[in-house]
Amino acid sequence: MSIVIVGAGQAGGWVAQTLRDSGFKGAITLIGDEPHAPYERPPLSKGLLNGREAAPTYVIDENTLHEQDINFVRSTNVASIDRGARSVTCQDGSTYFYNKLVLTTGGRPRPLPFSM
Ligand SMILES: Cc1cc2nc3c(=O)[nH]c(=O)nc-3n(C[C@H](O)[C@H](O)[C@H](O)COP(=O)(O)OP(=O)(O)OC[C@H]3O[C@@H](n4cnc5c(N)ncnc54)[C@H](O)[C@@H]3O)c2cc1C
User: Fold this and answer.
1) pLDDT band per the 50, 70, 90 thresholds, residue 84
2) CATH number for the 2-103 domain, one of 3.20.20.70, 3.40.140.10, 3.40.50.10540, 3.50.50.60?
3) Which candidate among 8, 58, 80, 97 keeps its CA 20 to 30 Å from the CA of 91?
């Protein structure tokens, strides 16, 4: 069983972590277009406010990703999904196959179609 997660933000990081915490032993590939491991945006920890914690606060840091055998593919934009072939293809041409696909690409504000 192979799971591909597209979008390495808060949701993507928690999906990967929760799968391992729940005992999932299959392959997990987490693909994100940012260079960083999943981090809280903004850092939501109270520890940041009282100075006990430094920003950024990671949802799942690099060491944990490695220890938990999560294949973290950074700085990579997923350009297309082929549902028939059960694969995603990235802008750099790399392709990843999945049994289950999780889309955690967040949201973007939609600019109003006029200026004031
Ligand atoms: C200024 C600001 C303040 C906020 N304050 C709070 C707060 O106080 N409390 C709170 O609970 N929430 C707050 N939020 C909201 C919080 O940041 C979001 O709810 C949260 O980040 C959503 O997580 P997500 O994983 O769904 O999406 P995101 O965090 O947006 O993660 C999606 C990830 O997917 C990546 N991605 C998108 N498309 C692709 C693609 N095709 N291929 C590869 N990667 C892709 C994106 O680059 C991003 O890294 C705030 C947000 C902002 C902007």
Assistant:
1) very high
2) 3.50.50.60
3) 58
